[in-house]
Predict the structure of 2-oxoacid:ferredoxin oxidoreductase subunit beta.
Amino acid sequence: MPAIPQKIIHEYLRHDKKFPHVWCAGCSNGIVLGSIIRAIAGMNLDRNDIVMVSGIGCSSRMPVYVDFNTLHTLHGRAIAFATGVKLHKPHLKVIVVTGDGDCAAIGGNHLIHAARRNIDLTVIMLNNNIYGMTGGQVSPTTPHEAYATTAPYGNIEPDFDVCKLAMGAGATYVARTTAFHTQETQNMVKEAIEHPGFALIEVICACPVIYGRLNKKGGAPEMMKEMRDNSIPLAAVDKLPPEKVQGKIIRGVLHKDIRPEYCAQYAELMKKAQAQGGSK
């Protein structure tokens, strides 16, 4: 990927709207936004051909700040809105920015069915392990025994592996990285946008103000260092003994294949129906 000028992020922001942003000091969301913008800038895409869609949550504020076609929609419904956009105008590059609660809880059904259909969407799930915007409640990815405002004695529920869920549902591109690994995130976003089918990227993020404070993780620097030190690339997994892999964040492209994409099949179905005069 070619070098991106330092001020490129500035060029893609809506400076007359909604600034200063709502993210807390030390939040990873701005880092991920930078990786997304650099990926898009490096692809030389016309910003009028990009649609960024979100629901509700900390990360879901992202479309408000960028100079693309954007939709800031209902809680958990971002993928449903994105599906409608993609079906109506299949040539558009549709990116969904979502959080772990928005995507895997109320939006879970939309996630699995978009993956099942293999509709050409790029879903970037920022996973900070908690509902950050609404007060620090347990989310589907809050680790077992971790603390939240609704789990003051520790979370007794097992957490979702959203990547495995997406693969099981039929997603044809699934990847995981962390906010610390900015170049890796940038490369994955580019790959996911270019991929002709449903793509999910899970980006592990830091929420130092709520999750970090409740779980004594330290501040933003400490949480970023934990992402660095507690993650390993997929290519290294087979070279390490099981005890070195246990509990680590596995980063990399976890699954990639090609199968028929939903919009293309839908277009063929319409042609078939029209050729038959709308009746079988």
